[in-house]
Amino acid sequence: MHLHINPDNAGRTMKNIRPISDEKRPKVYIETYGCQMNVNDSEVILSILQDAGYALTESISDASVILANTCSIRDNAEQRIWGRIEQFRLQKEKRGNVIVGIVGCMAERLKDKLLDSHVVDLVAGPDTYRTLPELIRAITPDSPQINVRLSHEETYADITPVRMDKNGVSAYISIMRGCNNVCSYCIVPYTRGVERSRDPQSIVREAEELFANGYREVNLLGQNVDSYLWKDPVTADRDVNFAQLLEMVAKISPDLRVRFSTSHPKDISDEVIYTMAMYGNICRHIHLPVQSGSNAMLEKMRRKYTREWYLERVRKIRSVMPDCGLTTDIIAGFCGETQQDHLDTLSLMEEAAFDSAFMFQYSERPGTLAARKYPDDVPEAVKTARLNEIIALQNRLSRESNEKEIGKTFRVLAEGISKKNSGELFGRTSSNKVCVFPAGGHKTGDYVEVEVLSCTSATLISKLV
Ligand code: SAH
Ligand code: SF4
Ligand code: F3S
Question: What predicted TM-score, i.e. pTM, was given to this entire model?
C-alpha cells in the first residue's frame, strides 16, 4: 500500500489521534460488489476511515466494522448481498459487538428497508462517505444510523483513495459521479444521483502521485466519460472536456498508460478518438456498450442512438485506429424483444466484431422507466436461450479476434504473476487483451515486448522477444 497523504485532513488527524500502530486500531473489513466505480469508492471509504483511526483487515472475524459496498444493477446482484447479510448475522451472533454496514447503490435504493433484517446497523449511500466516522460513532444496539442523501457536488476530489489493488501497477481514478442519462432499464441514476465532474487539477495530481509511487496505468472512470465537463468558475474558455482531460493525463509521462471507461455511443466524439490516436500511452481500447442491435429496442431503452449511428462510430474508430480494441455490454430479452430484434443484436455483433463483451439477461429494476411503462414480457427461458446464443457468438468472435494476433508483437504492462504458473507473468496489451508470458527476469510493473504464439478466446499465450 503506498503512502497516503490527505492534505486537508493531515493537520486534524495529527492533533486528534496520536500515531498508533495498526494492531491497536479498530479493524474494518470491506467487501466490494458491482462496477469499477464501487471498487474506487471502497478505496475512498478506506481513506476516510483510516484518517478516523481504523485499519483495514482482510479477515472478517477480526473486524469490528464489516462493510459491504453494494450493487443494485440487476436483481441477482442484490440477492447475493441478502445472502451475505445472513452470513453477517452469524458473525454478530458469534461475536456480539460487531457493526454491519451496507453502503453503496443498494443502500441508496433500499434505504431503511435494509434495517428490517435486524442485522444491519448502518446504511450509507454513495455520496455520504465523509460522514461514515460520525455515523459509526453514533451507532448503538437500538439506534442504527442511516444517511442516503444524494449530493449535487460531492466528487471526493480532495480524498486520496487508499489503494487496495495490491499489484501497485494499475489504479482507478473516478473523474465524475452520477449519471444524467435515463436509459429506461437502468437503476444507476437513482442510486448515484446527478452527473458531476471532478476538478481536472485534482485528477492530474492524483495520477502524478500514483506515477511517482510506481503505478504505470490509470483507468479514468465515469458512467459516461464523454460527457465529462469541468466548468471553470472564472472563465468559460478554461472549461475542460473529456478529450482535453485525457490529454492532460497522457502528458504526465509516456510511461504512464491511460485507460478510461465507460464511453457512451451517443456522446463519443471525434475529438476523443483523435486525441487517443495522438498519444501512444492512451490505450487503444474503447468500451462502447451497445445494449441491443435493434432500433426498436434502442428506442425503448432510451439510448438515443440507432444501430446505424453505432456502426458509424465503430467505423470511425477503426479508420483512425485500426488496432483499437472494442468491447461492449449487451442486454438480452428487454421488454417486448422479438426474435427479429434478437437476430439484429447477433448481426450487429458480427459487424462490429467485438473483442469481448459483458452480456446480461434483462432484469427489471423497480422504479425505472421501463418497470413503470413496459411489461417484462420475454419469458425467462427465452431470455436465457437468447443470452446463451449471444455468449456463444461472442466466444467465437473473441477467439477469432485473438487468432488474428498470433505472430504479432505487443508491448505489454506486466500486472502480476500468472495464477497457473509462477514462472509466468500476465499483463495486457494496449488494446486490453490479456497476455501470459515467461517472466524471464521481468517483474510486475515492467513494460515487456512479447510475441503471440497461440491463444484461447480469453488469453494470448506469448513469448519474450
Ligand atoms: N454507464 C454504462 C453502464 C453501466 S451499467 C453505460 O451506459 O454503458 C453496466 C451494464 O449493465 C450496462 O451497460 C447494461 O448492459 C447492464 N445493465 C444495466 N441495467 C440492467 C438491467 N436492468 N438488466 C440487465 N442488465 C443491465
Ligand atoms: Fe445507466 Fe444509461 Fe447512465 Fe449507463 S448511461 S449508467 S446505462 S442510465
Ligand atoms: Fe452497480 Fe452501482 Fe456500479 S448499481 S454497477 S455499483 S453504479
Answer: 0.94
